[in-house]
Amino acid sequence: MSAGATKALRPRLRLPSLQHPAQVVVAGFALAIVVGWLLLLLPVSRSGEGGAPAIAALFTAASAVCVTGLVVVDTPTYWSGFGQAVILGLIQVGGLGIMTAASLLGLLVSRRMGLRSRLTAATETKSLGIGDVRQVLFGVLRVTLVFEAATAVILTLRFAFGHDVPLTSALYHGVFHAVSAFNNAGFALYSDNLMGFVTDPWICLPISVAVIAGGLGFPVLFELRRQLGRPPAWSLHTKLTVMMTLILIVAGTGFVTASEWSNPGTLGALDPAGRLLAGFFQAVMPRTAGFNSLDPGEMYDGTLLGTIVLMFIGGGSAGTAGGIKVTTFVILFFAIYAEVRGESAVNAFDRRISARVQRQALTVALLAVAAVVVSTLAIMEMTDFALADVMFEVTSAFATVGLSTGITADLPGAAQLLLILLMFVGRLGPITFATAVALRERQRLYQLPEGRPIIG
Predict the structure, then answer these.
(1) How far apart are CA 32 and CA 248, in angstroms?
(2) What is the pLDDT confidence band of residue 123, given thresholds at 50, 70 and 90?
(3) Which residue, of 34, 75, 297, 359, has the greatest Cβ tally within 10 A?
């Protein structure tokens, strides 16, 4: 046998190929978590002696990249300035999106993008087509910098002149919390998060505005910038997102304020104006920032359940929020409404919702329910914590919120690893994650005979 034939028969080692843009997105997020984990393992990242334990560094890196905010160690005291800078960088990278950031860097360097790069960026930014990716990428960067800079300026001035923080520290705190807010991360440089500013509107309101803006999603922000004064001309996606965001904020504020009004551990210790501000802040944060000006561990069980619902719904698509997204929730609502009325089509704002979109909404919702229920059962088997606390923690992780009743650090390592997986899946979205790990796409070339099983 010739040498050429022998060489041809040798098995060749092939690296795994990432065929689908969604696979590249998943791989990019995973790589960012690993890099952040390795950086946080360095002794220089920790304020004390030695490096951080592997699970603490991994959990923090995953929480930052997935813009969640759950922590197993106290951020301001456990991590050094370098460690906090790493966390801030991971939050920014996770908020912009790994592929968006990579595409921006490649575009700035080479001034050109290939088709595959455009498809990858389109997947991450949810742009309508690949022709406008360049414009979308620069728009994402501009919007992010504008909101973060404006919020940072307001917070810096307030920290410096309202709370007597030295100017350098005030600037650092202002930038950190502005980036954390717009990216819906919920990381704070105070051990009690923002409970010390519960009645300060100059801290709570700018952070709330940044959280809401980041949670609307970049497509909505782009359209509002162009047609803010022309609501009838808005796209269906923008109408649904803005409408549900306003409804959930107003309803959430009323619910939290009424439910906790007389609770001495939360709103009961504040004056009426402070109660309203705190109620508004706690209604905004579950969608999905994770800052808290009240202690969730002191809330009534009814309030925790309502907060779980808000966290599960989340914010807008293609933004920094998590959850199943408000569009998913409202599409399912309109589908139920149409079925109850006996209508053959699902309509919203004079537009028909396609069957494919309805299936996507149903798939996302059911996968999310399954993830939360299975994970809750698993952690309850590992621990002795109450159902409300465990479900709150699991939903917060999956919806990338970051709110906690205080049990995160006390969970066993296996439960913390499960929360890391939930944050990862929740940030990418169930369908994106499932598509990325699928070996290949398959399209049925024929249709089976129709069946009519009895429902209900």
Answers:
(1) 33
(2) low
(3) 75
